[in-house]
Amino acid sequence: MADQSFSWLRWDHDLQKVGPQNLADSVAEHFNNATIHFPYSIAQRLRSKMIDLGLARIGRLLQYGPPPAWKAIHVAGTNGKGSVCAYLSAMLHARGIPSARFTSPHLVDRWDCIVVDERVVSETAFRAAEQTVLQRDGAEQIGATEFELLTATAFEVFNASLPSASPSTPSFGVIECGLGGSLDATTAMRADRAVTVVTRIGLDHQGFLGSTTAAIAAHKAGIMRPGVPCVVDLANRDDHAVRDVLEARARDVGTTLVYPDPQLFLRGDRTTHGSSETSPVAQLGLEPHQLTNLACAYAAFRIATGQDGGQAAAEAYTEADAAFVASIALQLRWPGRLQTLNVGPLLKANKGGPLPGAAPSVPALLDGAHNPQSADALAAYVDKHLRGEKGQAVTWILAASHGKDLDEILRPILRPGDRVAAVAFGPVDGMPWVRPTAPEAILERATLLGVDAAIDQYSATDKTVKNDSVVSALQWATSTDKGRGNAIVIAGSLYLVSDTLRLLRAAGGETGLPRAL
Q: CA of 5: how far to CAs of 9, 10, 25, 272, in Å?
C-alpha cells in the first residue's frame, strides 16, 4: 500500500510539471496491466488532474434524475463573460426571480464560484453535493476531470436550491463556460436554454481552442441552440472572421443573433418629453467594456424573462430601463475586475506577527487581466484614472500563468519609469494543472519594455514563500521614496487576485467578496 501511495504522489507531481494529455495515454498501458489493483485506471486518474475537453464523461455524470426545472442562461466568450453573468444574476435578483450562478475559477474558496440568490453557497451544501457527484463518478468509474466534477456539483446545488419553475414563476441558472463552448463541460447541462450569450472573442487558450479568432469563435458558437436567441457582443460583429463564424453557426443551428448597442444606454429620456437630460447610465462613467458587458447582460435578461418576445428590442428601452440598469451597475461589486481596495492590512503581516497600531491606508487596483484584450482594457483604465495627463509612473505587482505570452500582456500596460514586482501565485485548489510563470521571466520582459532592472524591479523568489510574496511585494512597493507616490496595480492573473483576496480576508481587510448563505 505504501508503494501505491508513493506512485500516486510521484505521478501527480510529474503531471503538474508536464501536463500534456498524452501523459495519460503514455503510461496507461503499463500501469493498467500491473498486478496492483486500483479503483480507477491510471489514465482516468491522470485525466482528472488536467484539462480534457469533451462531453461524454460529464454527460454520464448528469444523466441521473429528472431534467432540471430551472432554465439556463449560458454565457461563452473570451473576455467579459464573468461580468455578464454577475450582471445577469444581479438583475434577476433585483426583480425577485430565483436564480443561481456558476462561474470559474473560484476566487478564494472552491465553493464561492456557486452563488444562489446572490449569496455564496455554504460549504456544507457544497460538500454534500460534491460527495454525491464523487460517489457517482466512482460507482460508474467515469474518471471525470476536476472541472467536470465541479460543474456537476454546481448543477446538483442548482437542482436542490432553485424552486420548481412555472410559466408565471420561472427560475434561472446563469452559467459561464469554463473553456471554449462546444466541448466545455457546462454545455452538457440538461436544462432548457432561455438565451445564450457570446461576449467579446479574442486570443486566449490557443493550445486548446486554436490560434486564430475564427477558430476560437467556432468553439464559443457551440453553445447556440435551435430557436434560442443568442446575444452577441457588438465588437464581434466588427471582427469579420469572428462574425462570419458566428453567423454561419446561427444559420446552421436555426437561431437569431442579437447585437445590443451599448450607446443606447447613454442617451437621455427620449420616450416621454424628448428630454436631453443625461442618462443615469452615462452618469456612472463606466469604461467602454463595462458598458458593453452591461448591454449584453440586459439584452439577455429581457429575452430570458420574456420582455422582448424572443428578441432584444433595444430601440424600446425606456428611461425606466436605463434607471434599472444603472442601479445594477452602481450596486454590483465584481471582485478582481478593476476593483479598488485597501491592502493596508496586509502590510501589518510579517513573520514576526502583526505590527502595532492601525493598518495603514494603501489603495491598490486589483484586476485579473491575463490576455491581450483584458490587458488593453486595463491599460486604458490606468492611463485615464491613475497616470493622468502627466503620465504618472505606476507600481505593478504582477504574476502570470505558465504558458501565457508575456509580451501580449505586459506591452499594453508597462511604461518606462514604472516599477514592477514579479511574484508567483500559490497552488490553486482543485486546479493542479495551473502553474505560475517564474517571476524572473516577467522581469526579463519588463526590462525589454523599458523598466529599469537596477532600481525599479523586485522579485519575490525563494526568499519568500508564495503565500507571502504579495505581502513582500507590497512592502517593497511602499518602502522607498520613489515608489510612495505611485499608484499600485496588482494584475496579470486571476490566481494572483485569489491569493490577494485570501490574504486580505485573513488579515481582516475588506475584500468585496459576496456573502455566504
A: 6, 9, 21, 72
